[in-house]
Design brief:
The protein is an alpha/beta fold. It folds into two domains: about 20-215, MutS, DNA mismatch repair protein, Chain A, domain 3; about 225-460, P-loop containing nucleotide triphosphate hydrolases (Rossmann fold, 3-Layer(aba) Sandwich), CATH 3.40.50. Helix content is about 50%, strand content about 10%. The protein has 17 helices and ten strands. The chain has helices spanning about 5-10, 15, 25-30, 40-60, 60-75, 80-85, 90-110, 125-130, 150-165, 170-195, 195-220, 245-250, 280-295, 325-340, 360-375, 435-445, 450-460; strands at about 230, 235-240, 260-265, 265-270, 300-305, 310-315, 350-355, 380-385, 395-405, 420-425. The chain has a six-stranded mixed sheet, with helices on both faces. A four-stranded mixed sheet has the order 1-5-2-3, with helices on one face. Strand 7 (about 350-355), helix 15 (about 360-375) and strand 8 (about 380-385) form a beta-alpha-beta unit. It is elongated and about 115 Å long. The two termini are about 55 Å apart.
Length: about 450
């Protein structure tokens, strides 16, 4: 899986990727083609690189600004390189692009080589620069200089003299010779540059990585993400937060409550009333795991994570109006796809939000019990949320603390009710879920006659 595909599957990932400020076209192409890393060694290497770039951002402001300035000036030379590789003669615009790129890249490499490990060894572009800048002024412009050919310089002088003397016919004939000489020089320069092609290509790849890693580091630093530790046993996160939800709450003047959670291989069931943040928790876990395996730091205070082979998700309303499927049918097909993937890969992260919530409670409970039984046979990390009571099986149980009030609690409204919910998780040995719906509806001032009838039905009195 590559990042472009994951953006469509992982909730909240687009919110993150939209904030990555890439400065080059090659960087943007590489970003959306980032692979989903599954090897601890590869992930560690990527996280260590981000650490170095974050250090530059925090400690070397002058270098950070120079990198940003120079990267923003680099043009896309993909087409020029294709023509060079195809043995085509480059025109003046393409030669200008190569000259400008080589000068900027050389400045970036020379400035960053002492601070960033991946730039410590960089391709030598001086030969390219000398070919395209024979005057040595390092000005980002290009034409066929007189220095390329003494006959060219003499013929140009002749053209100027003829024009000065009003001999236009003779000047045109001489100018045709100038064009012929210039074309031969372009052919020679193109041939010479082909010998420099490996160094130019290496430079493009290194510039791409610098742009990519600098942009990712800027984002991780700005959003206060942390570098996780890696292991082969657990998913352990302290202070997990969802950047999108946190930002939304912040704009409303509200604070976000981070969550601590530890998952072992096997199944964990999370129960809690509606509004208890179970769905946000699943989305946050999916996002943090995806960010880790695409080489980012993660939204938490500290974390010790294990790479997984796949992130398998069934979260939210899966109804597809285009296909005509009901919510229940679409959800069952999604779960079926997850179950059929289990035998093909091990150590997945499976996140399923309130399965069978749209069918009747009797069949719904049976379906959830069967699902928990199936997942418990797998070595993956499986997290299932539910508001069904009476679920049985061999799995860990957690419960969202949920609604809390005291004598100092002010009037509860739809705008402030989230302030009275404790989203933290606690161990739970019961097979019943909290029943807070009628209580919360009462505190919200919902019609008393309606709620009285609901209580009668609930208690049977």
């Amino acid at each position: 899986m590559i990042l472009r595909k994951a953006i469509e599957e992982i909730p909240g990932l687009r919110y993150i990727t939209d904030q990555v400020d890439l400065l080059t076209a090659a960087g943007r192409r590489a970003f959306y083609a980032l692979p989903f890393l599954v090897e601890i060694k590869a992930i560690k290497r990527q996280l260590e690189l981000l650490d170095q770039y974050i250090a530059v951002i925090h400690q070397e402001d002058e270098l950070s600004q120079l990198l940003h300035l120079k990267l923003s000036q680099i043009k896309d030379i993909k087409g020029t390189l294709a023509n060079l590789e195809a043995n085509n003669v480059l025109d003046d615009i393409e030669l200008f692009e190569l000259k400008s790129f080589a000068i900027l890249a050389d400045e970036i490499f020379s400035s960053a080589s002492g601070s960033i490990e991946e730039v410590s060894h960089f391709p030598d572009l001086k030969t390219v620069i000398n070919r395209l800048d024979p005057e040595g002024n390092r000005v980002p412009s290009f034409y066929i200089y007189d220095l390329y050919s003494h006959p060219l310089a003499e013929k140009r002088k002749e053209v100027r003299l003829l024009r000065h003397n009003g001999q236009e016919k003779e000047a045109l004939e001489a100018y045709a010779e100038v064009i012929e000489i210039e074309n031969k020089i372009r052919t020679t320069i193109s041939d010479e540059l082909r010998t420099d092609y490996p160094a130019i290509l290496e430079a493009v790849e290194l510039i791409t990585r610098i742009d990519l890693h600098l942009a990712m580091a800027n984002l991780c630093s700005g959003l206060q993400f942390i570098k996780p530790q890696l292991n082969t046993e657990t998913l352990d996160i302290k202070g997990l937060f969802n950047p999108l939800v946190k930002d939304t709450l912040s704009k409303k003047g509200k604070s976000y409550q981070p969550i601590d959670i530890t998952l072992q291989h096997g199944v964990c069931l999370i129960t809690g009333a509606n509004m208890a943040g179970k769905t946000v928790l699943l989305k946050s876990l999916a996002l943090s795991q995806a960010l880790l395996q695409f080489g980012f730091f993660i939204p938490a205070k500290e974390a010790n994570l294990m790479p997984v082979q796949k992130i398998l998700i069934s979260i939210g309303d899966e109804q597809s109006e285009l296909s005509g499927l009901s919510s229940f049918a679409a959800e069952m097909l999604k779960i079926d796809k997850i179950l059929k993937s289990l035998g093909k890969t091990k150590f997945n992260l499976i996140l399923i939000d309130e399965p069978a919530r749209t069918t009747n409670p009797t069949e719904g409970k049976a379906l959830v019990n069967a699902l928990l039984d199936e997942l418990s046979t797998q070595p993956s990390f499986s997290l299932v949320t539910s508001h069904y009571s009476g679920l049985t099986g061999n799995f860990k149980r957690l419960r969202v603390k949920g609604f809390c009030e005291n004598s100092q609690t002010p009037t509860i409204t739809a705008e402030n009710i989230s302030d009275f919910i404790d989203y933290s998780l606690v161990e739970d040995e019961k097979d019943t879920v909290p029943e807070e719906a009628i209580k919360i509806a009462t505190l919200l001032g919902i019609d008393k006659h309606f709620l009285a009838k609901a209580k009668e039905y609930r208690t049977g009195k």
